[in-house]
Structures are given as C-alpha cells and as structure tokens.
Fold:
Amino acid sequence: MRGVRRRRLLIAPGGLFLLVWLLSLLLWLLPDWLQTGQRLVSHRAMATPSAEKRARTGQKLEVVLGTSSKWRRGLFQKNFPEYGSDFMAADIDEKAIRAERPEDMTVAIARAKADALLPRLEGRPVLLVCMDQ
Structure:
C-alpha cells in the first residue's frame, strides 16, 4: 500500500513485554503511593513499618509472581533468577473485565489478579507481582 509507512520496533518482543509489565506495575502502585505519601516499597498491603525496615536494612523480600502462564514464569526466572520462583495462579474471569483502552484493561486485570491472591498471602512478607499483556 502506498502512503503507509511501517515503523520499526526498537525493542525486542521480550523486552517490550517486560517494559509493558513494569509500566503496568508502576501505574498500579503509583496512585496508592501518592495518596499515602509513603516510600514506594511494594503493594499497598506491604506499606508497613516492617516492610520499611526491610527496605532500609537491605533484607530481601520474597517475590511471588501471580500467573499461571508457563511462558511468563520462564521469562521471569530467566531475567530475575535472584528473586526465586514462587508462582501462584489467580482464579479470575479475565474476559469479564473490560475497559475502553487496552492499557486500562491490562491494569484492571493485574489488579483483579492481585486482589484474588492477597488473601492467600496474608501474613507473608512478600512482593506480589501480577501482570497482563
């Protein structure tokens, strides 16, 4: 077709996924952080004095990846091996979650996953990472 310019993808597909994932995580955490005025440590449930103490002392926080995708698990283990390999699947109906913009839907699904998994993690000092694409 004439007049249509193709854009080059400057980021590898795996890198693009990680970029979207990290941006979604930041967009999900940022509103709570701005409202509370606390340092961004982890999920809003982790904004506790003990979490801040761990952040100051450099004690590692256990990371739980909220996904059932083998591909996402492999990507996480390959790129972040130092954070372990604890994975939990959220039993939610992703098709029931809708939004006008794809970015909003991605964040809404990630929040729904986190809300479904938080009761199972109660009392554990973890950073829960949920994502969608």
Notes: The chain is about 45% helix and 10% strand.
